[in-house]
Specification:
CATH class: Alpha Beta
Structural class: alpha/beta
Number of strands: 10
Strand content: 15-25%
Strand order of the largest sheet: 6-7-8-3-9-10
Bound molecules: adenosine-5'-triphosphate, magnesium ion
CATH topology: Rossmann fold
Largest sheet: 6 strands, mixed
Shape: globular
CATH architecture: 3-Layer(aba) Sandwich
């Protein structure tokens, strides 16, 4: 980790009409750090994640991102083209439903290769080789490279989505309930895989989950949301082992866990 944040989030609020999506959220994210956003259904996790990743414009607040040249840029004052470029190169976004993050009717190899082409790779043989490498890294047999994701199981689709996102060497990955729709045993393996990749690649990540076990396994720090507000924020082990807020204590004692 360096001594400069990757992301500086300041006073981000999103209202849907008069309804609060999220309110006055501020934090810094450091290089190599994994932050979990937890809270019950409707607490504002997805709203916040979408604001951070500019998929949604907040009502107020700012998010500054440190570009590769070291300069901070305000994400909400970038052009659409610049934002799209960031999304293709520096960032990944792993959706809960893999179908939202994959092209279901092109091959697994093309799903991974497409991201490489988007950053300027043109050499077919090299693209295919890298795609095949990445399939192996996410434990998909290279004999499946020409299969379409619709022929894959839910867990395989999710692993493919992860390969597609990581192949370009992003610096920051957003994940919304990455293990949400999967069986418990499939979840555990996927989490191990994600943890290994995040460690190996030194990525920063922001992971939304309502599952505290996921937060425990993946994150260094966590924020607990309730009714759109961040009510507790700290090192993951501290928050889970010694929660300060009564609501977090309830969450941890699993009374509110779904
Ligand atoms: N497009 C929208 N229009 C109006 N209200 C919305 C919209 N999206 C979310 N909300 C409201 O914003 C609040 C936060 O919703 P959000 O989807 O961010 O919660 P969440 O923590 O991700 O929940 P879940 O765990 O169920 O995914 C809720 O009250 C929700 O009803
Ligand atoms: Mg959500």
């Amino acid at each position: 980790m360096t001594d400069t944040p990757l992301l500086k989030v300041s006073g981000v609020s999103k209202f849907y009409g008069s309804r609060i999506g999220c309110k006055d959220v501020s934090f810094d994210l450091w290089p190599g750090e994994v932050l979990a956003i937890v809270g019950e259904s409707g607490s504002g996790k997805t709203t916040l994640l979408n604001c951070l990743s500019t998929r949604l414009m907040p009502t107020t607040g700012s998010v500054e991102y440190r570009m590769r040249d070291g300069n901070f840029r305000d994400l909400y004052h970038m052009s659409e083209a610049e934002r799209r470029f960031l999304m293709r190169t520096d960032w990944g976004f792993v959706h809960q439903n893999p179908a939202d993050g994959l092209r279901m009717t092109v091959s697994a190899g093309a799903n991974v290769g497409e991201r490489l082409m988007a950053v300027g790779d043109r050499h077919y043989g090299k693209i295919r080789e890298t795609a095949s490498d990445w399939l192996t890294r996410v434990e998909i047999g290279t004999d499946r490279i020409d299969d379409q994701p619709r022929a894959f199981s839910g867990g395989m689709r999710q692993r493919l989505q992860i390969a597609r996102n990581l192949v370009t060497g992003p610096r920051l990955v957003f994940m919304d309930e990455p293990t949400g729709g999967l069986d418990v045993s499939v979840q555990a393996r996927l989490l191990d895989l994600v943890r290994g990749l995040v460690n190996d690649l030194g990525l920063s990540a922001i992971v939304v989950t309502h599952d505290l076990a996921v937060a425990r396994l993946l994150s260094h720090r966590m924020m607990v949301m309730k009714d759109g507000h961040v009510i507790e924020h700290g090192l993951t082990d501290r928050v889970l082992d010694d929660p300060r807020e009564p609501y977090t204590q309830l969450l941890v004692s699993s009374i509110l866990q779904v």
